[in-house]
Amino acid sequence: MPLLTAAAEPALSPPSTKGPIMSEPERRPFVSARTVAERAGVSRSAVSRTFTDGASVSEETRRKVLEAAGELGYHVNHLARGLRERSNIVCLVVADMTTPIRARLVDVLTRKLQAAGKVTMIINTGTDEQSTASALRQTLNYRADATVVLSGTPSAKLIETSLANGQQVVLINRDDPLTGCHNLSVDNEMAGREAFFLLRRAGCRRLALVTSTASTASLLERERVFVEVAKDAGMAVTVMASGPTSYASGYESARRLFGRSDGPDGVFCVTDLLALGFMDAARHEFGLSLPRDLCLVGFDDIDEGDWQSYKLTTFAQPFAAMGDHLVELLGQTVAAAAGRRIFEPIPIWRKSVRPSAD
Amino acid sequence: MPLLTAAAEPALSPPSTKGPIMSEPERRPFVSARTVAERAGVSRSAVSRTFTDGASVSEETRRKVLEAAGELGYHVNHLARGLRERSNIVCLVVADMTTPIRARLVDVLTRKLQAAGKVTMIINTGTDEQSTASALRQTLNYRADATVVLSGTPSAKLIETSLANGQQVVLINRDDPLTGCHNLSVDNEMAGREAFFLLRRAGCRRLALVTSTASTASLLERERVFVEVAKDAGMAVTVMASGPTSYASGYESARRLFGRSDGPDGVFCVTDLLALGFMDAARHEFGLSLPRDLCLVGFDDIDEGDWQSYKLTTFAQPFAAMGDHLVELLGQTVAAAAGRRIFEPIPIWRKSVRPSAD
DNA sequence: GATGCAAATGCACTTGTGTGCAAGCCTCAT
DNA sequence: ATGAGGCTTGCACACAAGTGCATTTGCATC
Of B10, B26, B107, which is closest to A97 when you measure between CB atoms? Predict the structure, then answer.
């Protein structure tokens, strides 16, 4: 029936959908399976089956379909496919993408997801609850199979609706105690502890910890453990935070700390960016030399830390392993037990800490 | 290894897609408009109209619909909506995402696109034609309104099918002569010329240009103009490339250049990353001091160039303006005249070049 | 109370897929 | 020759939305 009407319609251009003829930006000339079918002289089902793995098509029609598809430039519409089954879309909710560590994480994850046949949607958001909320909603709008949160803390209620809609929620390095979602995190406790031992072994006497005013759970945990372990060993720690997690904040923290009578000689910066800013201020503003006058430990292992001007001793986050674990999670059924998975940071020895005291 | 192509590539299909009824992980419990309609006691059309701007719904039913939607956690399915009208998806094809400059560009673009009501899909690809091709196919699979290419050079044929499908193609900083697509680019000619004048004004006598072995059109253009202008002024230029566009390559180039009898005293690095590596080697390996013994100009204005250890004089790319222009393009009808738009780089004066010769 | 008009509503069709079911076709063995 | 059995193939439906058109409802006016 519809075929008849289409045939009866003369070839003159359709009188546009509705509006005046002023412009016609409404055309959607994407070629569909039906067009391919008509051209190949087969049914639309045959086209669908040709592009479906394991479906039953004769070699002959398959050839005809592929030929017609090639000539027309046909590509399967994944949006339509996503109506029936999984969309294969994964949403990445992230803030501060320009930060080296975030860029690395996004890079690794998009790579791994792609290799697993997923496609990633980036939602560039702020860290406040408001924008995280609208990010989560976006995720639902596009029927993403999973939402991976790298920044910000989603509200428990919104996570609940995500889960209720059969969507997996994975938090990376967000140590917030939320139930129902997967939690990949680096072992911040070990980092805090090891950082202290590194500095003590180097013979440092006046310890400081530099952090940011963005009170992320990860940063707080590193701080807590470092201070606690130092206290157990009978050493006090000066804690300093001068702004967001950035080079400038680390720089400023150093100015403040060394502006006092006796600056520290052993510092744990909870982030490499902070550490590099701190190191630059210590050197250029106060003429200190590392590791002689000052030992410095960072966290993240960003590329810049390996540059000749810095050679920062730090801890690397095992992003590759985290990415592998993520795709493994996505492969499982939705009902897979949600829970926390902790990855060990890898100590990276460079030149900003003395090898031993003696 | 490549992205899942449109062809009948086996791909790694999840083995459970069509398996027996042994388990039921196939549930897609996403709540649809019909469910909301049933709960609210109205027709499905009413639900649709409630969420469509400007449609005619009484205040009463609207209230009922919104209430039911809230209770059920309903979110409009943008995939289904994308079947009829524009998908509002924009694909970003990018390689080397961890590079600071790329991360910045991706950050700005995702922000701008988001503000314009678009959603961005990241396709993390290699720069070879093969992976660019499968990236382009991915773009078509998801019916993206537009494809924005930040890395790699798509084949003319593939661009053609994109355009034939009504998809806009925007190349950013790819100066390849491809017809039919929009081209946003920074003025490399001006950069090369200005870089030379900066160095000459500083009184440099032995010029060098440091580039990478990745022969991007942008890099080649900067090199060509710099060398040409210098030649016109009667000065020779040593050109050096030691590897990909990275810190390490810049470092290596400096080792080679200063390992000779007379190293350069004025250098244009076509990329900031190269410049920072170059600077570090010049200082730490050869004890040079900037800008006394060596004047250095970069390009990109990455954050790291402003760090205290570097203070690199460079040119900034006006990404914000480019992003604004991009969303403006997307708002136009598809038939908008494709062409090239050139943006002026912004000179950033810092400390790596002497202010004047005298 | 009847009429007119506007707003609200519902039906049915559209978008592009994938797939269950049944029918058709071909081959082979009885 | 005929039925069994396996491969193909097409119909029709499902997925989740938006919307033109016709119909119904509500309300005011005559």
Answer: B107
| Cβ pair A105, A323 in contact under 8 A | no
Element (H, E) at A276: helix A272-284
Question: Is the CB of B190 inside 8 Å of chain A's CB atoms?
Answer: no
Distance measured from the CA of protein residue A138 to the C1' of nucleotide C17, in angstroms: 23
Q: Which nucleotide is nearest to B53 (CA to C1')?
A: D18
Q: β-strands B314-316, A340-343: how paired?
A: unpaired
> Does residue A108 register a pLDDT over 80?
yes
The pLDDT of residue B160 is: 84
* Length, in residues, of chain A: 358
* C-beta atoms of A141 and B97 within 8 A: no
User: Which chain A residue lies closest to B71 (C-alpha atoms)?
Assistant: A161
Residue A17 has pLDDT above 70, yes or no: no
Identify the band that residue A313 occupies on the pLDDT scale cut at 50, 70 and 90. Answer: very high
Cβ atoms of A55 and A83 closer than 8 Å: no
Nearest nucleotide to A33 (CA to C1') is: C16
In angstroms, the separation between the Cα of residue A249 and the nearest Cα of chain B is 12
At B333, the pLDDT band (50, 70, 90 cuts) reads low
Of A76, A79, A307, which is closest to B247 when you measure between CB atoms?
A307
**What's phi and psi for A173, nearest 5 deg?**
60, 25
CB within 8 Å: A114 and B120: no
The answer, yes or no, to whether residue B316 has pLDDT greater than 70, is yes
Q: Which nucleotide is nearest to B45 (CA to C1')?
A: C10
In this prediction, residues B272-297 reach a mean pLDDT of: 96
Give A-chain residues touching B23 at CB under 8 angstroms. 333
Distance of C1' in C8 from CA in B69, Å: 20
A81 touches strand C (CB under 7 A): yes
A9-18, A121-130, A142-151, A269-278: segment of lowest average pLDDT:
A9-18
pLDDT on residue A127 = 78
pLDDT digits (tens, 9 = 90+) for B202-217: 999 999 999 999 888 8
The alpha-carbon gap from B124 to the nearest alpha carbon of chain A, in Å, equals 6
Gap between the Cα atoms of A235 and A203, Å rounded: 12
Residues in B touching A146 (Cβ below 8 Å): none
Q: Does A58 touch chain B (CB under 8 A)?
A: no
Cβ–Cβ under 8 Å, residues A254 and A277:
yes
Q: Is A190 on the interface with B (CB under 8 A)?
A: no
Facing B6 at nearest CB: one of A75, A103, A164: A75
Q: What is the pLDDT of residue B23?
A: 35
Comparing CA positions, the residue from A329, A319, A320 lying closest to residue A168 is A329
A45 touches strand C (CB under 7 A): yes
Share of chain A above pLDDT 70, in %: 90
The C-alpha angle A293, A298, A303, rounded to 5 degrees, equals 115
DSSP SS3 for A82: helix
- The whole-number pLDDT of residue B336 equals 60
What's the whole-number mean pLDDT along residues B281-290? 95
